[in-house]
Fold this protein.
Amino acid sequence: MKRGLGRIFHNTQAANGRTNNPSADDRTMPVEVPLSSNGKSSSAADLIRIDDLVKDYDGPIGPIHVLKVVDLEVSQGEFVGIRGPSGSGKSTLLNMITGIDRPTAGQVIVAGQSLSDLNENELERWRGEKVGVIFQFFQLLPTLTILENVVLPMDFARKWKTKERVERAMSLLEQVELADQARKFPNTLSGGQQQRAAIARALANDPPLLVGDEPTGNLDSGTSGMVFDLFEKLVAQGRTFLMVTHDRELASRISRVIEVRDGKLIDTNGNGRKP
Ligand code: ADP
Ligand code: MG
């Protein structure tokens, strides 16, 4: 039962990312390049390192070139915004970093792990422990209580003993000020409360990396501001956070914003200017 639910949870992520993962056998495996051989410097503090990443999708009249040979380094503890026109490849970039989808070429290393070295099962397990994903439409499972939604990733990863999981989930719900809503079902909560529950769920396995794909896109501006305050608090605690946002006001509060445009990544400050 528990495993079945775990699978639903992960499929929900994949569905949101609109992936069509090729099987391990027929995809083009990225060529392993030793870090020192390509002349690029590497820092031990990099939580994310992307080298020469290419992502194409099959389109009706040939390949769609979404990411055209991009590099990115994100240090541990950084708060990075991602913006760009609709369809520019923001979600695609996140999907490469979370291993929800595979690159056409190039390599992605997160927390020292080269994702191309993992098969689909290993990748799913790795993601459950190392990455917390927060979606625009929350993606809480409607048939589970808020508490059960937060416990679920812990059941899946088995990093904590069974009897510790509920206690840990309650303490995460306290952190997002939702302890009094723990026994309720998601559809009885407001959008802001559901998103805070989804944040508690993302923190379940204490991942070093948090990723949000327009996490405030479905909230009113007051609620967005409160959720964003929470993100800042999590970064202040040492987590790394990547957040796609269209909200100019929120972006202006982030010191580093990557712009995805014409298949390339451009580093800017939060006001859209080059640093
Ligand atoms: P953004 O998040 O910036 O709006 P996406 O990363 O979702 O953009 O999409 C970038 C481009 O890739 C779009 O043209 C989109 O239609 C295409 N795309 C995304 N996912 C797939 C997929 N699974 N199959 C085919 N094309 C896709
Ligand atoms: Mg998107």
Remarks:
- The chain has one domain: 2-19+45-268.
- The beta strands are 46-59, 62-75, 79-83, 105-110, 113-114, 131-135, 209-213, 240-244, 256-261, 264-268.
- The mean pLDDT is 86.
- Residues 221-236 form the longest helix (16 residues).
